[in-house]
Design brief:
Strand content: under 5%
Radius of gyration: 40 Å
InterPro entries: AI-2E-like
Subcellular location: Cell membrane
Distance between the termini: 154 Å
Keywords: Cell membrane, Membrane, Transmembrane, Transmembrane helix, Transport
Oligomer: single chain
Organism: Streptomyces galilaeus
Order of helices and strands: HHHHHHHHHHHHHHHH
Shape: extended
Family: Belongs to the autoinducer-2 exporter (AI-2E) (TC 2.A.86) family.
Number of strands: 0
Amino acid sequence: MAPTDETRHAGPQAPLSGPTPPAPPPSGTDAEPSARMPRWLPRAMVLALALVGAFQLGTWAFHQVIGLLINILIAFFLALAVEPAVSRMAARGMRRGLATFLVFFGLLIAFAGFFTLLGSILAGQIIKMIEGFPQYLDSVINWINTSFNTDLRRVDIQEGLLHSDWLRKYAQNSAAGVLDISTQVLGGLFQLLTIALFSFYFAADGPRLRRALCSILPPARQAEVLRAWEIAVDKTGGYLYSRGLMALISGAAHYVLLLFLGIPYAPVLAVWVGVVSQFIPTIGTYLAGALPMLIAFTVDPWYALWVLIFVVVYQQFENYVLQPKLTSKTVDIHPAVAFGSVIAGTALLGAVGALISIPAVATLQAFLGAYVKRYDVTDDPRVHGHRRRGEGPNPLARARRLWTRARERTAGPGAGGG
């Protein structure tokens, strides 16, 4: 039946029976919050991506400038080392820039003269070794023929070496590595120039740098910064003093050995061993001992072996006896702390960390020591590590008391019976 006008305009009719189904919510209202993205989520995603990008950019930039930061750190400690001399000259009326220039110029002249003298000695010894190489080879061949009943000849050995594949490959690799060596030398020179310039500015403009740093701090913080700076100067100077003293002792010990063996240029070689072994960390000992061994080999190959043995023995004595004692006296830190700081500095920054670790740790320890409250230690034997005389169960005193009591007991009844 076709719907009429009344039924067409009446709308949907309710069912006759059963529960009424819920009406669907109208679209475009606040009734469906779960179907939409929260407004804060896009901003949070953009902020997270920006933070990750900034972290990656900062990490990349830090790795790019880490070499410069290490050079600045070395320059800062070098400036701390020369600042007492510069301040002393400036206190007498000399301009601070001129005083810094004179100090660095004196150091440059001393190092240049020292290494020039060593270079001339080394070049002369190398020429002498090359000229005397046939004699050394003949002596070795004669010893081998005598000891092992062989029939070796120097001509055969030389021809074998000249026509060997090993020598050809070594010559090719050496020719290919000339460019790499030149690049490393130029990079080292640029690094030394960078350190020298920064250390010159730090030493010459030390008061201005401290003034600029203190100008952004409150008065209480200014006093702490100035005190930390003064402690760093004292500890760095003490560390260099200990290194200089160990260089003097090492040079004197090696000078006695070289003089006893009759090695030429003994004074210069002794100075070389003392300076290089103390002021070049990690590999300084091996560099220092290589040159005396080389020159001793030109005199007698057995002398080179004696020099090697002495260098190894003295290095152990210095590491375990001399260095901990001197370092603990000059920079006022425990020998175990000094040894651990060198290991930690080497692990973090390599040779540079080994060189500056001890003055850095000594400065930090002295600065933090002012904020640690200390109390009087109780008078206890466990604190002192031993009992004082007359305290505690001393075995000898205990034996005397037991002997006295035994005599009194044996003498008591007899005295009473009499």
